[in-house]
Amino acid sequence: MQRLTSFLENRWVDGQAPHTPLHDATTGYAVAETSTRGLDLGAALAHARTVGGRSLRALTFAERGAMLGELARCLHTHRDALLDLSRQNYGATRSDGKFDVDGAAGTLAFYARLGADLGDRRFLLDGEAEGVGRSARFVGQHLLTPRRGVALHINAFNFPAWGMAEKLAVSLLAGVPALVKPATATALVTWRIVQLWQEEDLLPEGAVSLLCGSAGDLLDHLQPQDVIAFTGSSTTGRTLRGHPRVVELGIPVNVEADSLNAFVLGPDAEPGEPTFEMFARELVHELTQKAGQKCTAVRRVLVPVHLLDDVREAVADHLSRQGLGDPASKDVRIGPVATADQHAAVTKGVAELEAFMDTFVAWEGDLPDHGWFVRPQLFLTDQGVHAAFVHDEEVFGPVATVLSYSGDPAEAVAIVARGGGGLVCSVYSDDAAWATEVVGELAPWHGRIQWGSAKVADQGMGPGTVLPGFVHGGPGKAGGGEELGGLRGMRFYQQRTAVQGDRVLLERAFGTA
Ligand code: NAP
After folding, report:
1. Residue 474 belongs to a domain
2. What are 27-48's pLDDT values in tens digits?
3. pTM
4. Which residue among 100, 157, 286, 483 is best mutated to probe the pocket of ligand 1, counting the most ligand atoms within 8 A of its Cβ?
């Protein structure tokens, strides 16, 4: 069986027995094992902080960008092998694996271009110099410099490639080394990628460390200039934010957590017209892609009462064209959920939904009798803001709930806002006045909103696709974090300092904005 080691202090190290197994989601057989027992995580962080930080800060933005470009190229070169591993470990269909691996390469390439644009500098200025004294000579200028610590990147199980890359691209371009900790159950792809990067010698020493397996006492060794970028459940997010060392040192923690993302269909939608078709197509895509295991997948679907029958018909039609089963088969679009725990959690969530709602529409067909498969389905309720479970619990699989409503914009806003803040919301309408009200009122509750309408109905990749130039994150229940968004994402890894002094000396030292 494949043994997944960790890459710490510039070498591959194995933890002590017993090792934790990783399984094939389609068959349930163990495919690899890993352990972090007995590893010196304090020394690993210190090495990254000192050696990695120094080597990255010695590079200009253009050089860091060129390095990211090489990381992206390497993923592209080994794409097919990585897609095979994605299927073996977490049951990814080819298109689900591509979504992860190509998304990782695309994000690295995006930040590579950003680095090239920033050129031969090693830090950034923020805004213009402003006067602070009686004469124009005494000014203040905001300066952005890389933090002198290590970034702890703790990732969720559902995106072993992209989840790592979307954090690393930003952190490395900012000049901050990272220790990556993938979710244990799906670490195989992450491990192989870091191995490939090391084999090709694409990274300066200490820039990227990898911890495969449990976090152990990692957080006890944090230092004041370190940061944590976390993706996962709100429960773990709360544990990390409340860790005594994090609280004592004021360590910044970026949390990307659960999100009850909503689709809102406007009352003006006409079945058969582009906006309605866009809604139905994207709804089924977001329900079934990666078997619903995306933080941006749809969980709540607001449909005006008069359109319920049309939506049911359109969704049933799209669902009937989705093959479900062995992800190795070319015709299969929907694979299993990633782990036995995940299967148990989704099954429990479905039972809770079934307890007070009827099925609205479901994928028809037989589920395979082995592996961790879940039937894609939508439930229906007319309880609006009062359907507490639907607004509070994220069932992390191919499952969502249709909430019927009157079409009134204020009612739609109240129902969506009941979710407590999300990553992305999608609004489908060609009624500009109606949609302006809904989008404007929902914006404070979300990191991103997609407004689908006739002129853009055949474009875009669906609201669940996170693009590196736009912020990813959301307020409230979604964790309150913000990642990506081009240069915006780098702020988390930089210290902003107002430097006050003689304008001429400051310009000589740091240049102008
Ligand atoms: P999880 O159980 O919270 O685990 C996430 C990561 O945290 C894993 O690497 C896990 O390691 C680690 N971890 C758990 N306890 C820890 C501790 N005490 N100290 C340090 N690390 C710890 O979440 P998950 O089941 O992997 O992911 C599912 C959740 O992630 C869903 O709720 C989903 O919405 C959310 N998600 C959000 C986004 C987003 O961008 N907002 C993206 C993807 C997923 P082990 O695996 O070793 O336990």
Report:
1. no
2. 989 999 999 999 999 999 999 9
3. 0.95
4. 157
